Structure prediction request, 511 residues.
Amino acid sequence: MEPLSAARSETAIDSELSVAHELKTLVLSRHPAIVLETAEEERADALLAEVARETNLVVFDWTITRGLARQPGEQAVYGTQDAARMLASIQDLSVEGLFVLKDFAAHLATPAVSRTFRELLEQLAAPQRLATIVLLGVSVQLPPEIEPVVVRYALRLPGRDQYRRVIDEVITSLQATARAEVHLEAEDLDPFASALSGLTLNQARQALARVAVEDGALAPQDLERVIELKAQALREGSMLEYFPPASNASELGGFDNFQHWLERARLAYSDQAASLNIPAPKGVLLVGIQGCGKSLAAKVIAREWHQPLLKLDFSTLYDKYVGESERNLRHALATAEAMAPVVLWIDEIEKGLAPSGEQSADGGLSRRLFGSFLTWLQEKEAGVFVVATANDLSVVPPELLRKGRFDEIFFVDLPDAAERAAILRIHLTKRKQDASQFELEQIAAAAEGFSGAELEQVISSALLRALQDQQPLSTGLVLDELAATVPLSRSRAEDVARLRALAQERFVPVR
Prediction:
C-alpha cells in the first residue's frame, strides 16, 4: 500500500494551518480569553502549539489533576491544582504565553475565583504583555459577567483531506505493528474519507482500527462497517440519525409536481449551473396531512441525489442545563455542514420550534433555538439541502414560511384515486404479493380519504388476517380491512378541512 500523496498530506496540513492562523489572529488582536469548545482536546493542543510557535509564545497547560505546567512536559507550579492559586500564579508570571485551562469553567461558579479571573483578564488586556487564556472544554458555560469579555471560537470539524491523512496514519500503524493486513488501494481512500466525515479525528482513528482488528484486515468491504460505526457515533454524540444512500429504498406514489421540481433542482448542482452562477438549492418545506408521504419524500431526495440522509429530531436537542440545548443545535448543524453534500431531514419541525414572539414556559429556550435555526438556514453554505416537514400549519412560525427560507413550500394532500392505486401496488409488491391479482381500482375507490400510511397499515393488517385464516390475501380481505378502519380524514375531519383551507393557493401542491 502506497502512502498518501504528498499533495494530499499538504492539503490536510494547510487546512489545519488555516485554523491555526485564525486563532493566531485572535491572540495577536490581544483578546485576553478565547473559549474553544471541542471534544478534540489533542487536536486543539496541536493547533495551540502551532500558534505559540508562530507568535514566539510559551504554552502553559492547566488541569485540576496536574496543576499549571509549562509545555512540553515541565513540572507543575506548586499548589496550582487549586483554581484560585493557579490564577494568582498567572498574574505573577511575567512571561508572554498561552495559558490553556482545561475544564475550568465550572470553577467560575465560586465568587472568589470569578472575581480573580475577571481581574486577570483586565491585566492581560493591557498592551504591556501579550498573553491569552484559552478555556478548553467540550461545553464551556460562563457566568453572564464574564461572557462579554471573552471571544468564542468554533473549531470546525475536520475536512476530507484531514480524514485521508488519518487513514494514512492508521495504515502506517497497522503495517508497522502487523496487527492487521491492509488491502486498500489509492482509489479506495476517497470513499473511506467520505464515510468518516462528521466524526472527530479520534473517532475516525478508532473506527478504522476497530474494523481492521475485527477481521484482521482493512479492505474495501469494510466501508459498510465504518458507516455503521459512524451512524452509531452520530446518534450518541450529535443528535443526528444517519442513513447512507445504499440503505434507502423508499418509494413515493404520486408526487408528480414534487418529483418534477426535484429533477429541475438537481440541475443546480451541475457544472453548467455553476458557470451561470446559479446557486445550489437550499431546501424545501413540506406541510400537510399526516401519513401522506412527507417523510418518505426526504428519503427519496437522498436516494435520487445519491447523498447521505441525516435526520434531526428537535426534541432530542433539549437539555436541562443552561446553554446545552443551543450547543446541541450548533453541533448538529456543524456536523451536517462537515458531511456535505448531504440531505438534512427535520421531521415535524413545528414541535421543536416556537414562534419568535411566544413567551413559552421553557424560559424562551424554544424561541432561542428557533432564532438560531433561522439564522443558520438563511446563511448556511451550499451542500446541506434541508427537508423540513410539518403537520400543523397553525403553529408553524410565520418566519419559517417567508420566501427565501426555502426554495419551495409544498402542500401534501390526501392521495387521489390513481395515487391510492399506485401506493397499494407499492405496498403489495413490497410484501411479495402479485399486484396484478388484485382489483386495485376497486380498492382505491373504496379507500377514498385514506392516507398513504393508512393504506400501508390496511395491507399489513389484511395480510395478518390472511395468515391467521390460512388463506391467500385477496381483494375481498383488503376491502374488509378498509371497511373496519376509520381514517384520519373522518375521525378529524374538521382539522383536515382547516388545514386544506389554510394551504389553498398558498403552497405548491405536490401532485
